[in-house]
Automatic annotation (TrEMBL):
Binds a copper A center. Residues 92-225 form the Cytochrome oxidase subunit II copper A binding domain. This is Cytochrome c oxidase subunit 2. PROSITE patterns: COX2 (PS00078), COX2_CUA (PS50857), COX2_TM (PS50999). One of its GO terms (molecular function) is oxidoreductase activity. It comes from Parabotia banarescui. Residues 1-91 form the Cytochrome oxidase subunit II transmembrane region profile domain. Its cofactor is Cu cation. The lineage of its organism: Eukaryota, Metazoa, Chordata, Craniata, Vertebrata. It holds the Pfam family COX2_TM. Keywords: Copper, Electron transport, Magnesium, Membrane, Metal-binding, Mitochondrion, Mitochondrion inner membrane, Respiratory chain, Translocase, Transmembrane, Transmembrane helix, Transport. Belongs to the cytochrome c oxidase subunit 2 family.
């Protein structure tokens, strides 16, 4: 999860998020190179009194500074499109979960099971135990098996919400009357935190998302206990 003074993204917990981190570094390096070149040219033009007529009027230089930006845009666009298609790819999900946004909590339904669903409310600050995070912990976590393709169907019951977990590389709008879908694979066990990322009213900041990835055997035990309690 994020920590104070953090400048970059959260640690990746899914293959798609790893690709996004690599693309971010790739694009940022190009931006640094362009910024350095432009800064050097500005300093050189301001600090020198010499003038070169071939720089002021040269078709060759105009061709270079027209073609070079086009090539750079292609180098950015191709990996970007690849990741865009990877994010939309959903191949034979092992588990489907329906996430419904409400004012101001989330409810989850495991549609592969007959009667497995629950509401997930934020734990108030005064009820937190040592080690829990303020404004991020919930009374019920969305538990998923690790290293398994998970499909999340996202919708809302009242106003616009957005189901987002940064470390998993997932962000999907929850629109009333519409069913959007996203997919992810948790590549390691852990607890991953997110928040509603669409302004949805007075308590928008108080409807966190907690995804817990566990080994398949532990997930089966958890689902059995949840079904018995239901």
């Amino acid at each position: 999860m994020a920590h104070p003074t953090q400048l970059g993204f959260q640690d990746a917990a899914s293959p798609v998020m790893e690709e996004l981190l690599h693309f971010h570094d790739h694009a940022l390096m190009i931006v640094f190179l362009i910024s350095t070149l432009v800064l050097y040219i500005i300093i050189a033009m301001v600090s020198t009194k010499l003038t070169n007529k071939y720089i002021l009027d040269s078709q060759e230089i105009e061709i270079v500074w027209t073609v070079l930006p086009a090539v750079i845009l292609v180098l950015i666009a191709l990996p970007s499109l690849r990741i865009l298609y990877l994010m939309d790819e959903i191949n034979d999900p092992h588990l489907t979960i329906k996430a419904m946004g409400h004012q101001w909590y989330w409810s989850y339904e495991y549609t592969d099971y007959e009667d497995l669903g629950f509401d997930s409310y934020m734990i108030p600050t005064q009820d937190l135990t040592p080690g829990q995070f303020r404004l991020l912990e919930t009374d019920h976590r969305m538990v998923v098996p690790m290293e398994s393709p998970i499909r999340v169907l996202v919708s809302a019951e009242d106003v616009l919400h957005s189901w987002a977990v940064p470390s998993l590389g997932v962000k999907m709008d929850a629109v009333p009357g519409r069913l959007n879908q996203a997919a992810f694979i948790a590549s390691r066990p852990g607890v991953f935190y997110g928040q509603c990322s669409e302004i949805c009213g007075a308590n928008h900041s108080f409807m966190p998302i907690v995804v817990e990835a566990v080994p398949l055997e532990h997930f089966e035990n958890w689902s059995s206990l949840m079904l018995e309690d239901a």
